[in-house]
Design goal:
Length: 212
């Protein structure tokens, strides 16, 4: 139950969890951040972690001086690139096996299917676009691996997407995090960063399904 409770706290109260880590653990926070982003992007059965809201809060904490922006960006970009590379490799070498029992019960097959449709529409560009879409962000590199996309092509789009995603959302938090209104409503904004992209992904999936 403690594991489930901590997991839900990370998703729903990432601002409080990250602030507590900075206060209690100092520099170890960078390792914690690396792990969360790596797991979300690298493990196909863990698409529920708060990537966008975590990056926003990292930027907000950097604006207060509690974290170093260069270190935070470097750690997050490295985790995002490495996570996708691992996910791609798993899809390329083990993907066909993981889509069948008993492993398939750990993979959200509907989200995987929508990622395949998204990937078929956008091609390699989907690797960049998927960075901003929960669930699809986790499944896109796996699908790229299963489809045997050329490693160099994937690696290039992976790196570009990681830089744009981390710097874009992180800098948003850095620039907006110290605005009084934003600070007063930080929990609501973090929740919006969790729910908003998810609703957009669901809406996109419904539109795609209605056309097929």
């Amino acid at each position: 139950m403690d594991i489930i409770g901590n997991y839900l706290a990370l998703i729903l109260h990432v601002d409080q969890v990250l602030s507590a880590w900075v206060t209690d653990h100092g520099a170890l926070t960078y390792g914690f951040v690396f792990l969360v982003i790596f797991v979300e992007t690298g493990l196909v059965f863990m698409p529920f972690l708060p990537g966008d809201s975590l990056l926003f809060m990292i930027g907000a904490l950097c604006s207060t001086g509690l974290m170093s922006m260069p270190w935070a960006l470097g750690v997050c970009i490295s985790a995002a690139i490495l996570g996708d590379q691992v996910n791609y490799s798993v899809g390329r070498h083990l993907g066909k096996h993981l889509l069948h029992p008993p492993f398939s019960k750990w993979i959200k097959l509907e989200a995987l299917h929508q990622s395949e449709i998204f990937f078929a529409k956008w091609g390699p560009l989907a690797i960049i676009l998927a960075r901003f879409m929960p669930f699809i962000r986790t499944f896109a590199p796996f699908v790229a691996g299963v489809s045997k996309m050329h490693r160099l092509t994937f690696s290039t789009f992976n790196a570009v997407g990681a830089v744009i995603w981390v710097m874009g959302v992180g800098m948003m938090g850095y620039l907006l995090g110290e605005i009084p209104w934003v600070k007063a409503h930080i929990e609501a904004l973090v929740l919006a960063l969790i729910i908003g992209p998810g609703l957009l992904a669901i809406w996109g999936s419904m539109r795609t399904s209605s056309r097929t």
